[in-house]
Amino acid sequence: MNKFFALLRAGLKSNFGLSVLRHSLFKERKDLWLVPLVALSLFGLGPLFYGYVKLMKMLYNMLQPLGQQYALLTFGFLAGQIFILLFGLYYVISAFYFSKDLEILVPLPLRPFQVMLSKFAIILTNEYLTTAPLILPLLIYFGIRAKAGPGYWIEAVIIYLLLPVIPLAIASLLVIVLMRAVNLGRKKDALIIVGSLVLIVLAMGLQFWLGRTGNNNLDPQAMVSFLASPDSLLNRVGARFPPSIWATKALAGGLSATGLGNLLLFAGTSLILLFGIVSAAEALFYRGLIGLGEAARRGKVLSRADMSRKVSTGRQPVRAIFRREWRIMNRTPIFLLNGVLTVIIIPVIFLLLAKTGSPNSDTTFLLGVIASGRAFIVVLASACFMTICGALNGTASSTFSREGSQFWMSKVIPVSPREQVTAKFLHSYLIALLGIVVGSGVLIWQFQLKLAVYVPALLLALAAAFNLTAVGIAIDLARPLLDWTNPQKAIKQNLNVLFAFLADLGLLALLGFLCFGLGKMGVRGRGILAILLLVLVGLDAASFWFLVKLADKRYQEIEV
Q1: Which residue stretches of 331-450 are H helix?
Q2: Residue 184 carries which DSSP code?
Q3: Residue that terminates a domain, selected from 271, 299, 327
Q4: What is the pLDDT of residue 212?
Q5: Number of domain units in the chain
Q6: Same domain (yes/no): 330, 291
Q7: Neighbours of 137 (CB within 10 A)
Q8: How confident is the model over 338-387, as pLDDT tens digits?
């Protein structure tokens, strides 16, 4: 066990890199620009947190008179676990099979389950941070509102720590079996991508199957009978994924026999699945791992002279760098799945929620309210949705980090930093455009938006995505993460992605306050939209100018 804990400590230090960030901030004073950026991001998070608290309050007030308030916890637990199951596949595939440190760990006197469990623990730690904004406010608000006793708070900590274990364990077992199968044939990268897509489709299918709670057309007598039991709603919500029910009943029961029994059931299931991971690791982990490294090395490694000659002979250097970016993205399964696929999944999930929701469901009701609102509100909502679909992913904010140790090629090729950063911007913006196009299709299909509404929304989304893309690339250029052990770290465990995400939220919040302020000043809807578009165009020009200037400086300073 000492070997396992030593391995885990080393993995956690490598994963977060907080000591490096602390040294850079307080010793070298290189990244002081992060301080105002974090302040801006917290400003952007404020309205979101306020809105989340208001939503919890509204739902609690609706459910409490019916005696169904604990269903609020079930909703949160189910959403968090399904989110982990769906997006945890990315983390698991990368950490288990594409980490560079595997070349060091495999020859060491470590059992396969020790290597896998250490990586599982690191992923689990990341999921605690991912689910914290969703689960922790819910647990705290509910406990305060329900005036819960000590038993609730003790079990709330245990539930939070166990919550990601079951979905992550399920994802891990699926990935282990998948990788053992794809490693039997050729074209492993293509098979991994296809297999991962299959797993994601299955996970999404499971998500919406879980969302089908049965017949919603209850007659009055059945409705009265349904509401007579305080556990009827939570049982119905979590019927097809029982762990969410066990967690809720554990908190509802506190330290009673019922509460402790459900807590033991929840914890016992988690331990059984962990034992399954240990068994699968011993039997299949190394068998699925062997051969991946050899497959990755088949291609010819270009020397500096080769790379320089290939680029210098071209007449369109921006086009050549763009193609290089495209290949880096598409030839690495983790980059492709986390970058391109994300901008497609978000609008598809939204569409499926809208299509599979019953006429009386909360999702359908919310969509109806948005669709029936004023044209000005619909334009802003549609523009925001398309912007989220296109720009809020890690493609732009990991542009330079994805190159890793191969960034030396970008420094030596005879192409100016301005041309290189322009090509990288066009690549990231193309990914954003893909998300905007898919989001547009979803909005047109679901709401039949009129041309007078769609066109201004599209223009706002294109302008906003331009700015957010430039900001993300600038953040990654300012402090690229070039020394990573696996491609997952370059895009999903990269602080630059987090900083860019928070900066995007801050910018969107500022634009929201601008619209609110203009409305208070008496500016009408069309006037607000026109001013907002002009502001975005101005920000676009300023952000791209800053990005080009930053490239001229940083390309000389970055050391590989």
Answers
A1: 333-356, 362-371, 375-391, 408-412, 417-447
A2: T
A3: 299
A4: 52
A5: 2
A6: no
A7: 15
A8: 677 777 777 777 776 665 544 444 444 445 545 555 678 888 888 988 99
Instruction: List the domain range (segments joined by +) for residue 416.
Output: 317-560
pLDDT at 299 over 50: no
Please determine, for residue 540, whether its predicted confidence score (pLDDT) is greater than 80. Answer: yes
**Average pLDDT of the segment spanning 212-230:** 44
User: What is the distance between the alpha carbons of residues 384 and 509, in angstroms, rounded to a whole number?
Assistant: 11
Q: Classify residue 510: in a domain, yes or no.
A: yes
CA gap 464, 52 in Å, rounded: 24
Same domain, 365 and 285: no
| Highest-scoring range by mean pLDDT, 4-8, 44-48, 226-230, 374-378 | 374-378
Distance between CA atoms of residues 122 and 489, nearest Å: 12
Greater confidence (300 vs 407) lies with 407
Give me the DSSP letters along 293-333.
Answer: HHHHT-SPPPPHHHHHHHHHT-S-HHHHHHHHHHHHHHTSH
Task: Show Cβ contacts of residue 463 under 8 Å, excluding neighbours closer than 6 positions.
Answer: 533, 536, 537, 540
Q: With 60 as the cut, is the pLDDT of residue 177 above it? A: yes
Boundary residue ending a domain (254, 269, 299): 299
447 domain-assigned: yes
Least confident segment among 107-116, 306-315, 319-328: 306-315
Indicate the angle between helix axes 112-145 and 2-16, nearest 10 degrees.
Answer: 60
What's the whole-model pTM score? 0.64
Q: Distance (Å, rounded) from C-alpha 277 to C-alpha 288? A: 14
Q: What is the C-alpha to C-alpha distance for residues 470 and 21, in angstroms, rounded to an integer?
A: 23
Structure tokens at 129: 């941070």
Q: Across residues 440-465, what is the average pLDDT? A: 87
> Looking at residue 522, what DSSP letter applies?
T
The tokens of 502 are what?
């928070």
3-state secondary structure 196-215: HHHHHHHHHHHHHHHHCCCC
Asked which of 55-59, 427-431, 503-507 is least confident by mean pLDDT, the reply is 503-507
Q: Which residue has the tokens 């900590």?
A: 157
Same domain? For 192 and 321 the reply is no
Does a structural domain hold residue 201? yes
Dihedral of CA 507/508/511/516: which sign? negative
Asked if residue 27 is part of any domain, the answer here is: no
